[in-house]
Amino acid sequence: MTSSQISLSAGVIRTDLSMSDGRTIRYYDSEKQSRSAKDLRPVEAQPGIGELRLDPLVNEWVAMAAHRQGRIFLPPKELCPLCPSSVDLLTEIPDSNYEVVVFDNRSPSLRPPDSYFQIPNELNFDTPIVPAAGKCEVVCYTSDHGKSFKDLTVKQIRTVIEAWRDRVKELSKSEFIAHIFPFENRGEEVGVTLSHPHGQIYAYSYLTPRVEKMLAVANAHKKRTGRVLLDDVIAREIKDEVRIVARNIDWIAYVPYASRYPFEIHLAPIKSVADMAELSDSQADSFTTISQEVFRRLDGVFGIEMAYIAAWHQAPVRVGRDVLRLHLQICSVRRQPNKLKYLAGSESAMGAFIMDMKPEQSAQQLREVKL
């Protein structure tokens, strides 16, 4: 078992240990804990790398990861693989407690290639299948199975964002990584398979369709105006005021001008940065309270836990860093306590969203939540 330690900001110490099958688990601690617990599970062979196939109708990559069919699905708390290990259950986390942990996904959609990898430059009908290069990691926010992100303390959230910053910095060093996407799915309505509070990080070897489109639009805006697009978006939200949900010295939360979901909130640093690695310690500190408030407001709209996708958008690793900016997009598919917004024909087939509620209305509902 190999072990190493790295000192990060906010007094957080990262300890790396090897799991029984060779994967790496990273403990992020703020209380100077000692980590040496061994993974006592029998060694299991890891799945091989999948395939990237190009859809020639739209020139978009699709990852084929058939091995994920067998992954665990909504186990009861006593069998949760993201809880700490105990005498009765050996889990993905060998220790009996933890603050925040990040480990390599057991059933990854993307994985590091065995040799030199470069995504093909020519995208057309004859583009060959290539390995599904990349990296997938799991980020466990707390050892408490019953909590959600909004229930974390300010100190716990600070440790989570330190883990995110650290992972973005380290993953950016890999030559085959083009873009890094931290995100969280909460709720069965958005496809969650484990109810323990956690998120994931997908590090792609290519730019996803969303990133490519955002990059093209941001480049065109910069060429036309000389300014960064998200800076202008935030300036408009501050000027209009009506869609702002919360704000502090470093961050602003707002319902976007053309929101696509019944409750969609964007949370962005007022002084923009390209990615999480560029956040200052002050920005990381002040993110804790406003993110806590935003998620509590979301759950307070109907007095129930809202299913959501919380997606970090940031600049790619090597291109667009002068025009794309970090922001968190939180989308809930719930439009009423007993009704969901389904992505039906127009949204799923055409990518053309239709909203039944104006963003100013949902912003007002979020602001009126009593915390």
Q: Can you put this structure into words, describing what you see?
A:
The chain is of the alpha+beta class and 371 residues long. It has 2 domains: 3-41 and 48-207, HIT family, subunit A (2-Layer Sandwich); 211-367, HIT family, subunit A (2-Layer Sandwich). The chain has 6 helices and 17 strands. It has helices at 154-171, 209-225, 229-240, 281-300, 345-350, 359-367; strands spanning 3-7, 13-18, 24-29, 51-55, 60-64, 100-104, 130-131, 134-140, 179-186, 198-204, 244-247, 251-254, 263-269, 308-313, 327-332, 334-336, 339-340. Strands 1-2-3-6-8-10-9-14-15-13-12-11 form a 12-stranded antiparallel beta sheet, sandwiched between helices. A 3-stranded antiparallel beta sheet has the order 5-4-7, with no helix packed on it. A two-stranded antiparallel ribbon has the order 16-17. Helix 1 (154-171) crosses helix 4.
**Helicity range:** 10-25%
Provide the CATH topology of the largest domain: HIT family, subunit A
Classified in CATH, the superfamily of the largest domain is HIT-like
Radius of gyration: 21 Å
Q: How many separate structural domains?
A: 2
- Second CATH tier, the architecture of the largest domain: 2-Layer Sandwich
End-to-end span in angstroms?
46 Å
| Proportion of residues in extended strands | 15-25%
Element-by-element helix/strand order: EEEEEEEEHEEHHEEEHEEEEHH
Number of helices: 6
Morphology call: globular
| Helix/strand/pairing category | alpha+beta
Which CATH top level class of the largest domain fits?
Alpha Beta
Strand segment tally: 17
